[in-house]
Structures are given as C-alpha cells and as structure tokens.
Amino acid sequence: MSEPALRLSGIEKTYNRGQTAEIRVLRGAALTLAPGEVTALVAPSGAGKSTLLHIAGLLDVPDAGTVEIGGQDMTGASDRARTRVRRRDVGFVYQFHHLLPEFSALENVALPQRAEGTGRRAAEARARELLDSVGIADRAGHRPAALSGGEQQRVAFCRALANAPRVLLADEPTGNLDPATSDRVFAALMTLVRETGLAALIATHNLELAARMDRRLRLEEGTVVAD
Amino acid sequence: MNIVSGLIMLVKNKGRDIGILRTMGLTEGAVLRVFFICGAFTGLIGTLAGVVLGVLFAIYIDPIFAAVNYLSGGGVWDPSLRGIYHLPAKLEAGDVLSAVALSLGLSFVVTIFPGAARGAHEPGGGAAL
C-alpha cells in the first residue's frame, strides 16, 4: 500500500485552557488519507471541523498528537518548515473563495507557484491549464469581483492545486453556492482530484454531496469515526 | 511618521489578504518584504519630491519671496519689525546628502515595524478563515 498522503494521530486541541470557558474541541482525533481518495468529513457546526482542517493543514498546532504529510512528521517543525510543506504539499479551499481582489483569476492561480519560485511564464501557463480544466479559461483575465460565485470557487480550487499538492483540504467548499452551481463546482473539483491523484478531505454539511465521495467520516465528541 | 501610520492602515486593511498569503505558504520574510518595499517606495518618492522642492526653494528663495509678497499684497515679511533684511538660503551638497540619508534611513527603519508585526501573524487567524 502506498504511503498515506496525510495521517493525523491522537490530535488534541483545547481552547481557553485552564479558564472557565475551556473548550476541548478535539480528543484524540485520528484519520488517514490515501492518495487519490476523496473523503467527506461530516459534522455539525462547532464540532471542530475547521480546527481539524487547520491542524491538518499546518495552520494551527495541536496540543498533542502528530501530523504527518507525505510520511513527514511535522510535530515540532519550525514555522519555516511548516510554511514550506504548506506551500508545496497542501492546498486549501474555503467556503468563501478568499481570492486576492486586486489580482486577476490567472494571477491568483499563478501566485502560489511564484511563491515556490516558478517563473512567471511557466506559472501562468500552468494557471491557464488549470482554469481551462474547470472550464473558465476565458475568464482568466477577470478579477474576482467580475466572476460569479461558482467561477470564484473554481478559481480557488485551481489556486489550491497550483503547486500540485499531496493533500487538498476543503471547508464547506460549496456551502455558499446554490444547488445547481454547487453541483457544477463539485464535479469540477472531483475531475481535478481524479486527474491529479491527490488526497482530498472535504468538510461538508451536505449529506448528498458527502454520499458522492469515496469515504465518509464523522467528527463526534472530538474524535473521528467512520460513517 | 506618516509612513508608519500609512503602513499600519495598510496592514489593517490587508489583514485578510496577508492571512491568505501565509496560508498559501508565503514565509513571514516574504510578507515583510512586501511591506518593506511598499514603505520604502513611499519614502523614496517622498524624499525625491522633498529634495527637488527644497533645492528649488533654496535656489529661488528671492523670487519666491517676491512672488508671495506680490500675491498677498505685500507686508508678508516686514524687515523693520524683525531686523532681518534677507532670508539666507545657501545650497550645500553636504546638507542635501545628509537630509536625503536621514529621510531614506528613517523611512526604511519605520517600515520594518508594522510589516514585522503582521509577518509574524499566525496564518490561519489572519485570514479569518
């Protein structure tokens, strides 16, 4: 069996530790994602989905437990090392597109590649290819404000995949879209994931959407359980 | 100080974007460089404008004085009241260079603080994700 793209073990996270308002969000959460696998993470609001995704994506540090990306244990890694792995191996998509408003769709997709040291021409060629694969190559020159919600989210997917990461983490990626657009965006996401063979963890409230993924996990009482 | 206040406003306005850049994998140093370039550019433009205006004023102080006096109907500078009959303005290369060095040096130094404050910010929180 190939090496897991992402492995979380024994993840603990408590906010406001030692205070009366202490919230123990994650209690030994664990999961493993294999390359090419699309996994749904289903949980009600406030269950700790975003915290788990932030920890998995090296945006937050757990109180205990280990995060391995591509077999590399990131426990105790420096901010610089975490930033490098985040840039190369992790792609994020959120409920709101979070595109940079002053940049065109093409520039937004090229940006993570430029941060990785790719030349402008090569970065823009890859960006154009990705935008083409989700059917919005003709919108490459438009700024986010001139794009529809579905187009913005597709650009966000392309940006997340720009550096060909091992892991895609998505937090309610279609939560802000109407059902028809949500369907189109989800189909575009699945096409991209299948083409690239990365591992995707997609947090969603939408059970119908979750049913279309390879595997479903639930976050209950701070732990991850198979659905 | 205007560079500092301008940069602090820029940092506040761009907080979300900075979070996005950090999430994308830009290092603290890369974010700091963006603010440094922005602040240093402002300082450079300000210094250049200041040097040009200052030199022009120093060279043409008498005609400028006369023009202001003419436009305001005279009496802007009444020598009988102050006992100073001539406004001394002598252009010295050393003065210009030290003023340029001080201005650029200060603008570069003050640029670092707001940028560093933001560059060190945790990526996830900054993006309010």
Keyword list:
heterodimer; A: 227 residues; alpha/beta; Rossmann fold; six-stranded mixed sheet; four-stranded antiparallel sheet; 7 helices; 10 strands; B: 129 residues; mainly alpha; elongated
Report on the architecture of this protein.
The complex is a heterodimer of chains A (227) and B (129). Chain A is of the alpha/beta class and 227 residues long. Chain A has a single domain (34-61, 76-215), classed as P-loop containing nucleotide triphosphate hydrolases (Rossmann fold). Chain A contains 7 helices and 10 strands. In chain A, helix 3 packs across helix 4 (120-133), helix 3 packs parallel to helix 5 (149-161) and helix 5 packs parallel to helix 6. Chain B is mainly α. Chain B is 78% helix and 0% strand. Chain B has 7 helices and no strands. Chain B has helices spanning 2-13, 15-24, 28-59, 61-71, 79-82, 93-119, 123-126. In chain B, helix 1 (2-13) packs antiparallel against helix 3 and helix 3 (28-59) runs antiparallel to helix 6 (93-119). The two termini of chain B are 32 Å apart. The model of chain B is unreliable at 125-129 (pLDDT under 50). The interface between A and B is medium-sized, with 25 and 17 residues.
Tally of structural domains of chain A: 1
Note the beta-strand portion of chain A: 25-35%
- CATH class group of chain A: Alpha Beta
Uncertain parts of chain A:
none
Give the CA-based shape of chain B: elongated
Fraction of residues in H or I helices of chain A: 25-40%
Strand content of chain B: under 5%
Count of β-strands of chain A: 10
